[in-house]
Protein backbone atom coordinates (compact mmCIF):
# COMPACT_ATOMS: atom_id res chain seq x y z
CA UNK A 1 0.00 0.00 0.00
CA UNK A 2 2.96 2.33 0.52
CA UNK A 3 4.63 3.72 -2.64
CA UNK A 4 7.84 1.75 -3.40
CA UNK A 5 10.01 4.85 -3.41
CA UNK A 6 8.79 5.97 0.00
CA UNK A 7 9.21 2.47 1.41
CA UNK A 8 12.81 2.36 0.18
CA UNK A 9 13.54 5.84 1.50
CA UNK A 10 12.23 4.98 4.98
CA UNK A 11 14.30 1.79 5.05
CA UNK A 12 17.48 3.69 4.12
CA UNK A 13 16.74 6.45 6.65
CA UNK A 14 16.27 3.91 9.44
CA UNK A 15 19.22 1.70 8.47
CA UNK A 16 21.66 4.51 7.69
CA UNK A 17 22.97 2.81 4.56
CA UNK A 18 21.81 1.48 1.22
CA UNK A 19 23.45 -1.87 1.92
CA UNK A 20 21.61 -2.50 5.18
CA UNK A 21 18.31 -1.31 3.68
CA UNK A 22 18.82 -3.71 0.76
CA UNK A 23 19.24 -6.59 3.20
CA UNK A 24 16.11 -5.64 5.10
CA UNK A 25 13.98 -5.21 1.99
CA UNK A 26 15.62 -8.07 0.10
CA UNK A 27 16.20 -5.85 -2.91
CA UNK A 28 19.29 -4.97 -4.90
CA UNK A 29 21.01 -1.74 -3.83
CA UNK A 30 20.70 -0.46 -7.39
CA UNK A 31 16.92 -0.95 -7.28
CA UNK A 32 16.65 0.97 -3.99
CA UNK A 33 18.85 3.79 -5.28
CA UNK A 34 16.82 4.04 -8.48
CA UNK A 35 13.48 4.20 -6.64
CA UNK A 36 14.74 6.90 -4.27
CA UNK A 37 16.07 8.93 -7.20
CA UNK A 38 12.67 8.66 -8.84
CA UNK A 39 11.05 9.84 -5.60
CA UNK A 40 13.43 12.81 -5.45
CA UNK A 41 12.54 13.71 -9.05
CA UNK A 42 8.81 13.51 -8.28
CA UNK A 43 9.15 15.73 -5.21
CA UNK A 44 11.71 18.06 -6.79
CA UNK A 45 14.07 17.92 -3.79
CA UNK A 46 17.17 16.03 -2.71
CA UNK A 47 16.37 13.67 0.14
CA UNK A 48 19.75 12.05 0.81
CA UNK A 49 23.36 13.11 0.86
CA UNK A 50 25.37 10.16 -0.41
CA UNK A 51 28.95 9.64 0.75
CA UNK A 52 31.61 6.96 1.12
CA UNK A 53 30.53 6.28 4.70
CA UNK A 54 26.85 5.96 3.96
CA UNK A 55 23.98 8.37 3.59
CA UNK A 56 22.64 11.31 5.58
CA UNK A 57 19.26 12.99 5.44
CA UNK A 58 18.92 16.44 3.95
CA UNK A 59 16.47 18.89 5.59
CA UNK A 60 13.89 17.77 3.02
CA UNK A 61 14.68 14.16 3.91
CA UNK A 62 14.07 14.88 7.61
CA UNK A 63 10.65 16.31 6.78
CA UNK A 64 9.75 13.32 4.61
CA UNK A 65 10.95 10.91 7.31
CA UNK A 66 8.58 12.53 9.82
CA UNK A 67 5.59 12.34 7.49
CA UNK A 68 6.61 8.89 6.27
CA UNK A 69 6.48 7.54 9.78
CA UNK A 70 3.00 9.01 10.20
CA UNK A 71 1.97 7.34 6.94
CA UNK A 72 3.37 4.04 8.21
CA UNK A 73 1.30 4.30 11.37
CA UNK A 74 -1.85 5.06 9.37
CA UNK A 75 -1.17 2.11 7.09
CA UNK A 76 -0.70 -0.17 10.08
CA UNK A 77 -3.96 0.98 11.66
CA UNK A 78 -5.79 0.45 8.39
CA UNK A 79 -4.42 -3.07 8.05
CA UNK A 80 -5.21 -3.83 11.69
CA UNK A 81 -8.83 -2.73 11.20
CA UNK A 82 -9.18 -4.79 8.02
CA UNK A 83 -7.55 -7.81 9.67
CA UNK A 84 -9.93 -7.55 12.62
CA UNK A 85 -12.85 -7.42 10.20
CA UNK A 86 -11.93 -10.57 8.30
CA UNK A 87 -10.07 -12.44 11.05
CA UNK A 88 -6.51 -13.72 10.97
CA UNK A 89 -6.38 -15.38 7.57
CA UNK A 90 -3.10 -14.06 6.31
CA UNK A 91 -0.41 -11.53 7.15
CA UNK A 92 3.29 -11.19 7.85
CA UNK A 93 4.83 -10.95 11.32
CA UNK A 94 8.37 -9.79 12.11
CA UNK A 95 9.91 -10.99 15.38
CA UNK A 96 13.36 -10.30 16.81
CA UNK A 97 14.55 -12.37 19.75
CA UNK A 98 17.54 -13.42 21.81
CA UNK A 99 19.40 -16.70 21.39
CA UNK A 100 18.09 -18.24 24.62
CA UNK A 101 14.44 -18.13 23.55
CA UNK A 102 15.34 -19.31 20.04
CA UNK A 103 17.02 -22.35 21.61
CA UNK A 104 14.14 -23.25 23.91
CA UNK A 105 10.64 -21.80 23.80
CA UNK A 106 10.30 -20.65 20.23
CA UNK A 107 9.52 -24.09 18.82
CA UNK A 108 6.49 -24.50 21.10
CA UNK A 109 5.17 -21.04 20.21
CA UNK A 110 5.67 -21.67 16.49
CA UNK A 111 3.94 -25.05 16.62
CA UNK A 112 0.75 -23.64 18.13
CA UNK A 113 0.77 -20.53 15.95
CA UNK A 114 1.38 -22.36 12.66
CA UNK A 115 -1.34 -24.89 13.48
CA UNK A 116 -3.87 -22.09 13.96
CA UNK A 117 -2.67 -19.66 11.24
CA UNK A 118 -0.94 -21.60 8.44
CA UNK A 119 -1.30 -18.76 5.89
CA UNK A 120 0.62 -16.21 7.97
CA UNK A 121 4.27 -15.76 7.04
CA UNK A 122 7.00 -15.03 9.58
CA UNK A 123 10.35 -13.24 9.67
CA UNK A 124 12.29 -14.30 12.78
CA UNK A 125 15.91 -13.35 13.50
CA UNK A 126 18.22 -13.71 16.51
CA UNK A 127 19.82 -10.43 17.65
CA UNK A 128 20.90 -8.79 20.89
CA UNK A 129 18.53 -7.14 23.36
CA UNK A 130 19.57 -3.58 22.49
CA UNK A 131 19.06 -4.28 18.78
CA UNK A 132 15.60 -5.59 19.61
CA UNK A 133 14.69 -2.36 21.39
CA UNK A 134 15.99 -0.33 18.44
CA UNK A 135 13.93 -2.40 15.98
CA UNK A 136 10.79 -1.89 18.06
CA UNK A 137 11.38 1.85 18.23
CA UNK A 138 11.98 2.00 14.46
CA UNK A 139 8.91 -0.16 13.78
CA UNK A 140 11.04 -2.61 11.79
CA UNK A 141 9.65 -5.49 13.85
CA UNK A 142 6.29 -6.17 15.48
CA UNK A 143 7.47 -8.11 18.54
CA UNK A 144 10.68 -8.69 20.45
CA UNK A 145 11.85 -11.12 23.12
CA UNK A 146 14.80 -9.73 25.06
CA UNK A 147 16.86 -10.61 28.12
CA UNK A 148 16.78 -8.00 30.89
CA UNK A 149 15.76 -5.20 28.53
CA UNK A 150 16.62 -1.71 29.70
CA UNK A 151 13.70 0.57 30.52
CA UNK A 152 12.49 2.39 27.41
CA UNK A 153 9.52 4.79 27.37
CA UNK A 154 8.71 3.72 23.79
CA UNK A 155 8.59 0.00 24.58
CA UNK A 156 6.18 -1.95 26.79
CA UNK A 157 6.46 -5.39 28.37
CA UNK A 158 3.61 -7.71 27.34
CA UNK A 159 4.75 -10.77 29.33
CA UNK A 160 7.86 -11.95 31.14
CA UNK A 161 9.39 -14.89 32.97
CA UNK A 162 12.37 -15.52 35.23
CA UNK A 163 15.61 -16.23 33.35
CA UNK A 164 18.38 -16.91 35.91
CA UNK A 165 21.96 -17.64 34.93
CA UNK A 166 23.50 -20.92 36.07
CA UNK A 167 26.77 -22.85 35.96
CA UNK A 168 26.95 -25.28 33.06
CA UNK A 169 29.31 -28.24 33.57
CA UNK A 170 30.04 -31.60 31.97
CA UNK A 171 28.32 -34.55 33.72
CA UNK A 172 31.71 -35.90 34.79
CA UNK A 173 33.10 -32.57 36.04
CA UNK A 174 34.25 -32.32 39.65
CA UNK A 175 31.45 -29.83 40.37
CA UNK A 176 28.71 -31.86 38.68
CA UNK A 177 27.46 -33.25 41.99
CA UNK A 178 26.96 -29.86 43.63
CA UNK A 179 23.40 -28.77 44.39
CA UNK A 180 24.30 -25.08 44.26
CA UNK A 181 27.38 -22.97 43.65
CA UNK A 182 28.56 -19.44 44.37
CA UNK A 183 30.61 -17.18 42.15
CA UNK A 184 33.47 -17.39 44.64
CA UNK A 185 33.67 -21.15 44.06
CA UNK A 186 34.27 -20.53 40.36
CA UNK A 187 37.33 -18.32 40.89
CA UNK A 188 40.40 -19.83 39.28
CA UNK A 189 38.44 -22.25 37.07
CA UNK A 190 38.65 -22.09 33.26
CA UNK A 191 35.36 -20.34 32.57
CA UNK A 192 33.23 -19.41 29.56
CA UNK A 193 31.27 -16.18 29.84
CA UNK A 194 28.71 -14.60 27.51
CA UNK A 195 30.28 -12.15 25.07
CA UNK A 196 29.67 -8.42 25.31
CA UNK A 197 27.31 -8.73 22.34
CA UNK A 198 24.62 -9.99 24.72
CA UNK A 199 22.99 -8.29 27.70
CA UNK A 200 23.61 -11.26 30.02
CA UNK A 201 27.31 -10.32 30.09
CA UNK A 202 26.59 -7.00 31.76
CA UNK A 203 24.61 -8.82 34.45
CA UNK A 204 27.44 -11.34 34.95
CA UNK A 205 30.08 -8.62 35.33
CA UNK A 206 27.91 -6.68 37.79
CA UNK A 207 27.35 -9.81 39.88
CA UNK A 208 31.09 -10.59 39.95
CA UNK A 209 31.89 -7.08 41.17
CA UNK A 210 29.16 -7.23 43.82
CA UNK A 211 30.38 -10.62 45.07
CA UNK A 212 34.02 -9.49 44.84
CA UNK A 213 34.73 -12.67 42.91
CA UNK A 214 37.98 -12.55 40.92
CA UNK A 215 36.75 -14.32 37.82
CA UNK A 216 38.51 -13.87 34.50
CA UNK A 217 36.91 -15.78 31.66
CA UNK A 218 39.25 -17.74 29.41
CA UNK A 219 36.64 -17.72 26.66
CA UNK A 220 33.94 -15.25 25.70
CA UNK A 221 31.39 -16.24 23.09
CA UNK A 222 27.88 -15.54 21.84
CA UNK A 223 27.70 -19.04 20.32
CA UNK A 224 25.96 -21.75 22.36
CA UNK A 225 27.70 -24.40 20.25
CA UNK A 226 31.16 -23.04 21.11
CA UNK A 227 30.26 -22.88 24.81
CA UNK A 228 28.76 -26.38 24.79
CA UNK A 229 31.83 -27.86 23.08
CA UNK A 230 34.16 -26.22 25.63
CA UNK A 231 32.11 -27.46 28.59
CA UNK A 232 31.30 -30.95 27.27
CA UNK A 233 34.95 -31.67 26.57
CA UNK A 234 35.76 -30.98 30.22
CA UNK A 235 37.85 -27.91 29.44
CA UNK A 236 35.99 -25.79 31.97
CA UNK A 237 32.60 -24.46 33.05
CA UNK A 238 30.25 -21.81 31.66
CA UNK A 239 28.02 -19.21 33.27
CA UNK A 240 25.01 -18.50 31.11
CA UNK A 241 21.27 -18.90 30.74
CA UNK A 242 20.58 -22.68 30.83
CA UNK A 243 17.98 -22.32 28.10
CA UNK A 244 20.78 -21.48 25.63
CA UNK A 245 22.21 -24.96 26.06
CA UNK A 246 18.85 -26.75 26.38
CA UNK A 247 19.52 -29.04 23.41
CA UNK A 248 22.95 -30.04 24.71
CA UNK A 249 21.51 -30.64 28.18
CA UNK A 250 18.79 -32.86 26.71
CA UNK A 251 21.50 -34.90 24.99
CA UNK A 252 23.31 -35.35 28.31
CA UNK A 253 26.39 -33.39 27.24
CA UNK A 254 26.06 -30.68 29.90
CA UNK A 255 24.08 -30.03 33.07
CA UNK A 256 23.01 -26.88 34.89
CA UNK A 257 23.81 -26.11 38.52
CA UNK A 258 21.96 -23.18 40.14
CA UNK A 259 23.97 -20.20 41.31
CA UNK A 260 23.46 -18.66 44.73
CA UNK A 261 23.48 -15.02 43.67
CA UNK A 262 20.61 -12.51 43.90
CA UNK A 263 21.68 -10.60 40.79
CA UNK A 264 22.16 -13.61 38.52
CA UNK A 265 18.91 -15.12 39.79
CA UNK A 266 17.09 -11.88 39.00
CA UNK A 267 17.39 -12.10 35.23
CA UNK A 268 14.17 -11.98 33.20
CA UNK A 269 13.16 -12.62 29.63
CA UNK A 270 10.43 -10.35 28.28
CA UNK A 271 8.02 -10.17 25.35
CA UNK A 272 8.04 -6.60 24.06
CA UNK A 273 6.14 -4.36 21.67
CA UNK A 274 6.27 -0.70 20.76
CA UNK A 275 4.16 1.29 23.18
CA UNK A 276 1.02 2.68 21.58
CA UNK A 277 1.45 0.72 18.36
CA UNK A 278 -1.65 -1.09 17.21
CA UNK A 279 -0.45 -4.45 16.00
CA UNK A 280 -1.95 -6.22 12.99
CA UNK A 281 -4.20 -9.15 13.89
CA UNK A 282 -1.54 -11.68 12.84
CA UNK A 283 1.03 -10.05 15.14
CA UNK A 284 -1.51 -10.00 17.98
CA UNK A 285 -2.04 -13.73 17.50
CA UNK A 286 1.70 -14.38 17.48
CA UNK A 287 2.05 -12.29 20.62
CA UNK A 288 -0.55 -14.47 22.35
CA UNK A 289 1.35 -17.65 21.39
CA UNK A 290 4.65 -16.25 22.69
CA UNK A 291 3.04 -14.97 25.89
CA UNK A 292 1.52 -18.40 26.61
CA UNK A 293 4.96 -20.01 26.41
CA UNK A 294 6.42 -17.44 28.79
CA UNK A 295 3.50 -17.84 31.20
CA UNK A 296 3.95 -21.63 31.21
CA UNK A 297 7.64 -21.20 31.97
CA UNK A 298 6.88 -18.67 34.70
CA UNK A 299 4.50 -21.16 36.30
TrEMBL record:
GO terms for cellular component: cytosol. GO terms for molecular function: DNA binding; DNA-binding transcription factor activity. The keyword Methyltransferase does not apply. InterPro entries: HTH-type_LysR_regulators, LysR_HTH_N, LysR_subst-bd, WH-like_DNA-bd_sf, WH_DNA-bd_sf. Residues 1-58 form the HTH lysR-type domain. It holds the Pfam family LysR_substrate. PROSITE patterns: HTH_LYSR. Keywords: DNA-binding, Transcription, Transcription regulation. This is DNA-binding transcriptional regulator, LysR family.
Amino acid sequence: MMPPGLRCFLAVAQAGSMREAALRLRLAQSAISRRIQQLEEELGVQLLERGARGVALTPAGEILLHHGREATQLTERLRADLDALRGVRRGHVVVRLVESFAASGLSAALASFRAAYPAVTLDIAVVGSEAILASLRDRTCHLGIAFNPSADPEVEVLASAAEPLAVMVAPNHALAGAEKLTLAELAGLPLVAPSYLGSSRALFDTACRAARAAIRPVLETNSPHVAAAFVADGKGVAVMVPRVLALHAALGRVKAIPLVDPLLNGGRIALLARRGRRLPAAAEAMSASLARVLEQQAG
